Amino acid sequence: MSQGVIQGSMREAPLPDIIQLVSQGGKSGCFHVQQDASRARVYLKDGRIVHAVTHAGEGFEALMEVALWLDGSYRFEEVLPADVPSTITKPNASILMELGRRMDEWRVISQKIPSVDLYPASTLLPGETPHGVNSREAQALALSTGYYSVAEVAEAMQKPVLTIAKDLYGLVMAGHVVLKGIRSGKPPKVNAPAPSPEPEPEPAKDLRTASAMFGNVAAPATPASREEDTAIVPLRPPPPMPIGFPEGDESLPETVGGGIASGGSPLPPKPAPADDPQRMVKLMNFTQRIAQAAKMVLPEAQHEMINRLQAKATQQIISGDGPEAVKSLALAISRGAVDAGCDADMVRTLNTHLKALFATK
């Protein structure tokens, strides 16, 4: 391997994390990203993302295409052509946060729509009108004849493929659409009249309505338990990632007030050496998952507190604190929620999600 080259798998170290690690050093160069036949190039100048190119285009949305490449690979070379344009002007923090958010959405969507090359087909009878769909979902449903792939439906609607995949996820969950591996049916008319849609639902205002995954599937009227009633997402661990942390079956104990106690047996000390970038990226990825889980539970007013604590943990990891910084982040977020006056049910739900993360091998 030549000097100045960093490479790896996005399954082991997601691209937002490795870009953040490289940008911390103020490096200039190019990330070559690949999944199957799809390729992308992401350019950094003095640590700042300035340009991205895919087969479909360039700039910010080209970079966001990579959100669908969960099994891809990357290679960073410290070689920056002199003629690279600056098509991306947003700060790295907002770019990487958006890229990470879209990747997390796709991880969930891909459980029902594993590929945008599959062909959605409506299960409705001729003349049957679905209920509980918004106008965009109704248009996607009208195009779901088995002839267009998910990507082609998005192209016909002139919408981002992730947006249409999210709509089709809701339609699959509602039983209105099935996915096929072979093209069938007839080409639908792009301007075909869509079924009469119902108004788009308002964003969820409380924890009960927020338990619907993407606002497309109604929250259950009678939850199986109080924890399920207050949880923003189903109470199960996130998709397993080879994070390698923490070791053992230790969980975070709750205090009487619903927080996480700092006592108990500490995690085995495994500081991340400063010269082990893969280990550092895995730990930084874990802090990102902790922050995202907390943001799904806590109100938006607390998100700045979460961002601040995550940034502190990231600096501690870079400084070599390793797993202890990750554990401290979870403790600090829980204490911050209590100090901010969040009610006990919300804090208990938060701790349930944090424990689920730490229980994942």
| Tally of DSSP helical segments | 11
Order of helices and strands: EHEEEEHEHEHHHEHHHHH
Oligomer category:
single chain
Distance separating the two termini = 31 Å
> Could you say how many structural domains there are in total?
3
* Residue fraction in strands: 5-15%
Structural class: alpha+beta
Describe the protein in words.
- By secondary structure, this protein is of the alpha+beta class.
- It has 3 domains: 5-102, no CATH class; 110-200, Winged helix-like DNA-binding domain superfamily/Winged helix DNA-binding domain (Arc Repressor Mutant, subunit A), CATH 1.10.10; 236-359, no CATH class.
- The chain is built from 11 helices and 8 strands.
- The chain has helices spanning 15-24, 60-65, 92-109, 135-142, 150-157, 161-173, 226-230, 277-297, 303-318, 323-339, 344-359, and strands at 5-9, 29-35, 38-45, 48-54, 57-58, 73-77, 119-122, 177-180.
- The strands form 2 sheets. Strands 1-6-2-3-4-5 form a 6-stranded antiparallel sheet.
- Helix 8 runs antiparallel to helix 11.
- It is globular, with a radius of gyration of 22 Å.
